[in-house]
Amino acid sequence: MFNWLSTTKPAFVNKRTVKSVLLALPLAVLSACGGNTEKAPDVSDVKVELNTRRLDQDITAIDTNNIAAGLQKLQTKYPDFLPFFLDTLMGLGIQGNYNDTVQGIRLGMHSFLTHKDYRGLLDTVAKHYPDTKEIDGWLQQGFQYHKHYFPNANERKVVYMISWLNNWAAFTYDSTILGIGLDMFLGASYPYYKAVGIPEYKSTQLVKEYIPVVAFRAMYRERTPFVMEDRTLLNMMIQRGIEAYYIEKVLPFVPKPIRLAYTEKQLKWCEENEAGIYNFFITQNFLYERSLQKVVRYVMEGPSAAGMSDQSPGEVGTWMGLQIVKSYMAQHPEVTLDKLIAMPIDEQKILQESKYKPK
Q1: Enclosing domain of residue 78
Q2: Which of 23, 168, 240, 355 could make an SS bond with 318 (beta carbons 3.0 to 4.6 A apart)?
Q3: Of 195, 223, 251, which marks where a domain is finished?
Q4: What is the pLDDT of residues 124-182, one digit of tens each?
């Protein structure tokens, strides 16, 4: 059920860069008016023109008796995105040939629009998201903070879409578009998440309150992809820490657990066991370990961290990396956010100059 005609996920399409991000966030309530004690800059005067489109609604409205004509109209509305959506994301192989005799339309697109399971998904998305005003407000704030720190950054068009539960929660395309798959935010009770292989520890995380984090994480990873090959655990922790620091800066109104992809209990456990976590990495000789088999699990999602309490988050290294990065930035007020992201990572130098002392 909900299988793609093609399940290949591209990492790069010529100049059209695509970074898919599988949502991994805790179940909590997003407070658009606050929820954190960190001071944030006033961005009320930062002008951002939020441009959003509902491809999911436009796809749903296509006349199933004349699909090709419907797609032709959408090509006019989405000239910069529809071919990528149909051929790369959905694997239909239409290649701009909007004719009802084309197999990708006659069989593929027709199935997506008429099969009861696929149609049920479209109807569920429509019920959950009759509009996106609340999400738009969160994204608007995030883009204002982003522009505050990166004034020369280009503005993104936001395309809300549906990817048939293929885990395209948020991604960037061609440096101008931010795609958001609303079908990945239908709540823990949506029955088909388990059917498509989403782990139990993630299933309760797929709600709309987490869209801002996933969206800006996708933008960050477009510019700064995570590199694991021949990297020490400390290097990977700092990579993740800088990413988490960026999210903290552009989404200061989002509560900490959501920003970090942790539950409140997992965050509390980290804060109460900071010295123990750091000591674990020291005693296991993991900080400078380059064997991915031994250490990558500490910077990747999971139900808990190997060798630690069941209350720990799987990606505990991200939290530790964030503490080191925040300590480093406190010691180097001259380093701006854009400089931090752009500079090569010398993990030993950053750790030493951070003067990090776990509590």
Answers
A1: 12-223
A2: 240
A3: 223
A4: 999 999 999 999 999 999 999 999 999 999 999 999 999 999 999 999 999 899 999 99
Give the C-alpha separation, 234 to 332, whole Å.
20
What's the whole-model pTM score?
0.88
Euclidean distance between CA atoms 240 and 242, whole angstroms:
5
- pLDDT tens-digit readout, 301-313: 999 999 999 999 9
Strand partners, 19: 172
Task: For residue 166, give the amino acid letter.
Answer: N
- 148 and 279, same domain (yes or no): no
Check if the beta carbon of residue 147 is closer than 8 Å to that of residue 172. no
**pLDDT classification of 294: cutoffs 50, 70, 90:** very high
CA end-to-end span of the chain: 49
**Dist CA 338 CA 223 (whole Å):** 11
The residue from 223, 246, 269 where one domain ends is: 223
Q: In the structure encoding, which two tokens stand for residue 110, read together? A: 């027709």
Contact 218, 173 (CB under 8 A): no
For the chain, the farthest-separated pair of C-alpha atoms sits apart, in whole angstroms, at: 67
